Amino acid sequence: xxxxASITHDFEECEDKSVYFTLSLYVxxxxxxxxxxxxxxxxxxxxxxxxxxxxxRLRDAVEPLFNDIADRERLGAVDDFLLDTLCPQNGEFxxxxxxxxxxxxxEGRRFIATPPGLGKARTLRVRRFWYTHANGAxxxxxxxxxxxxxxxxxFYFLSLLQKAAAPKEFEAAPRPHGAPPFRATDDRxxxxxxxxxxxxxxxxxxLSFWQYxxxxxxxxxxDLFGKLPRDPGKGQAxxxxxxxxxxxxxxxxxxxxxxxxxxxxxxxxxxxxxFFRRLLPEPDKVTGVPPPRTLMVQEECYLPxxxxxxxxxxxxxxxxxxxxxxxxxxxxxxxRPDYDQFTDAQIDAARKTRPGMxxxxxxxxxxxxxxxxxxxNIIDFMNQDPSEILxxxxxxxxxxxxxxxxxxxxxxxxxxxxTTYVEKARSLEAANDYIGTCPYAFMIHVVxxxxxxxxxxxxxxxxxxxxxxEKLGNKGRLKRAAEAFYAFRTGQYANYYRDRYxxxxxxxxxxxxxxxxxxxxGIGRRNDYIERLISNMESQTRDREARLAKKDESxxxxxxxxxxxxxxxxxxxxxxxKLRDLSRNDEVSVSLSWVPPxxxxxxxxxxxxxxxxxxxxxxxxxxxxxxxxxxLVWRLIRGFLR
Length: 642
Prior knowledge:
Blueprint: E1 18-27, H1 29-36, H2 42-49, H3 55-69, E2 73-74, E3 77-78, E4 81-83, E5 92-97, E6 102-106, E7 109-113, E8 121-132, E9 138-147, H4 152-165, E10 182-183, H5 192-195, E11 198-200, E12 206-208, H6 209-227, H7 244-247, E13 250-252, E14 259-262, E15 264-271, H8 273-279, H9 293-296, H10 299-312, E16 322-325, H11 327-335, H12 344-353, H13 363-375, H14 386-392, H15 401-406, E17 410-414, E18 417-422, H16 426-435, H17 439-474, H18 478-499, H19 508-520, H20 523-585, H21 609-641
Parallel strand pairs: 7-16, 10-14, 15-18
Antiparallel strand pairs: 1-9, 1-15, 2-3, 4-8, 5-8, 5-11, 6-7, 8-9, 11-12, 13-14, 17-18
């Protein structure tokens, strides 16, 4: 079936040598709430799904497959849903054109490659859909399908398609000092996969890859958010527009300084019998054990590639050697005359121990180079030695000899992508016409993505809490700090542990891959680190609060003692008043000039020694009382501010 012929068919046949590439974007619960004016509840989506475009069709066809491998139920209901988009039921067909020449820099050298056939126009089928999560977050997914051949030009196109989403090994154009970073949707970034990979959409637009993604998202989001129920209490339009720029988060792409990329994750699903047999050779008929990969990947196959590259421009001739991989190089790669020395008898004998050796020209060498590079998102895949190939073809599943003998699929993962190779997949056939990929692989992908982005949001909120607590602690406001911890534990902490997915997979294969993804994406590591950080800071705050409480207790004991002294002064004042009365009765009239007028309580009759003592006691009592009241008020205010 040709690419263009598939346009007229209602159902798409899954063929050998085809790749299903899903690009997934994540819209957090906070941004969904901001766009709708209220949180997106599961009951709202459940009611909405039945009548929104072809969502019921997606639900009936695909969600039972999700439920087959995963326990998605919570409190007797499933709160995750598939929603349709404006994409036609049979998919949308786009034309992608790659450049004839592609250049990148790595390991201190600049490579320029012109593999034959790279620059031709290619037709890809696209399916688009939404996946809503129980906490109100939404994933936007575009699934591309492309049929390829095992040629250098096709291999480099597939690599460029991956690079469009994760452009490692490229460099952004120079920017003026203080200029903002480049964005993937800019017209020009200086990064070849972003600038030169052009998409012609069904609407006739000539766009870069990410401009096409943005345009598709804007159309679908405007339709979805315009029809979803909004908060009736607001009475006004939501403050956040449902657009790509407003809803999709961006982050610095650390491998390319000066570039920010939409935060996304990738899923690749290859249906390719040859690739599958390369990665998982058929077991020996006698032992039932597949040959080891060390037998499939040997130095004599790959050393000539490195020598050939070094010969194009030996190291040391210039500061940055330029390796131009032109027509002569590709003729040598395709034909490999150095392997013509083998006789047919030698080839037949070799096949008994090397199932991967198809012919004397060793096509498997080039295929291993591509697979190893693609698994690690490396466009410089022609420049690898056997150890690198062995590392890059070490799958996360199968992980044991017993699993390998089952020959179900081979899965690899890197921080941004999950990649699967199969010989044939019934599940792909069942779901391809709806979501454009294998539902089992997609469930691992979407659950891992949700957990990862939730963990990153949780990490950000935890560091905000730590900054707030440190500021409060420096001001001595430990009561407020303790309240901040309580609010965090009952808010973000509780939401995180409630809304993230546990290992929900029923089958050992998917369950093990999910655990590996959790480790690889740093979800478990980040979670443990945050928990230790929060617990340590909370413990320190509680300890400081306890020590201050002990100080306060000592201060209170001091105040109680002071109150006792004050009581004594009150008694003394009573005696002073009594003595003053006696003095007045004796009609003694002596003026004491040192006594302030406002303390002269005797009318001037204070010339006796005990009269002076009476004034002193009264004055000291008043001073002490005022100071004690001020101190008590200050302690009360300080305790309240904590």
